Amino acid sequence: MGDSFANQYLEPISSAALDNGIHGLIATQSACRAFVDDAASNASDQRPCRQFNRSTLDFVLAQAEPSIVVLGSNWSNAAEISVLVERLLSAGKTVVLIMPLLNIGFDLPQRWIENQIRAGKAIGEWKVEAGPVLTMSALRNEIARGLVRYRDHPQLVVVDPLSVVCEQGYCYLVRHGQANVRDTAHISNVNAGQYRGLFDAAFRAALRGGTEAEKNKD
């Protein structure tokens, strides 16, 4: 569930799901983040987006399957995330939550080309300091605080793509001659496969969490 920030992980999610024997549906809409529709707080959101979220959530909650729900969006409000996660968990769903990646703020491929022209040579690696604005640390901290009561919940699995492109205080915008982002924020289609391991681990954890939940019901 989500917008283009969920759909960008389609290839690694699909591959990891298939490897773990998981089959499902894709429910994403461009420029429409995932949220629990509320007449007051979502009054400024476009009607098609609100309807999409209502229809999708109603479908997911109305039946046992899908039992695993992957959430990813261009959120700016951590409260929306905690409300949605709580609704899904209370319905017995296992939630795989994709954390925010990078807030680059400029067209990365274009800037990369310009830098190479100025340098007069190919630039195969470009890393920058993993500062709080780039890594959206304020939002990430708010998300963590909002979900603290579910920190040890077996049916909440958090996927952090930041661990793939950032290490030792730096984040790689370009690595091995490939840009990690295709515009100002979305991951590169070429490098999407590097996140497969994260989703493979997440789905294995999700399956364990679902099994544990079923045992607790007995």
Question: What does this 3D model show about the protein?
Answer:
The protein is α/β, with parallel strands linked by helices and 218 residues long. 41% of the residues lie in helices and 12% in strands. It is built from 8 helices and 7 strands. It has helices spanning 4-7, 10-19, 47-61, 78-90, 108-119, 137-146, 162-165, 196-217, and strands spanning 68-71, 94-98, 126-129, 156-159, 166-167, 170-175, 178-179. The strands form 2 sheets. Strands 3, 5, 6 and 7 form a 4-stranded antiparallel sheet that branches. A 3-stranded parallel sheet has the order 1-2-4, sandwiched between helices. Helix 2 crosses helix 8 (196-217) and helix 4 packs parallel to helix 6 (137-146). The model has no long low-confidence stretch (mean pLDDT 95).
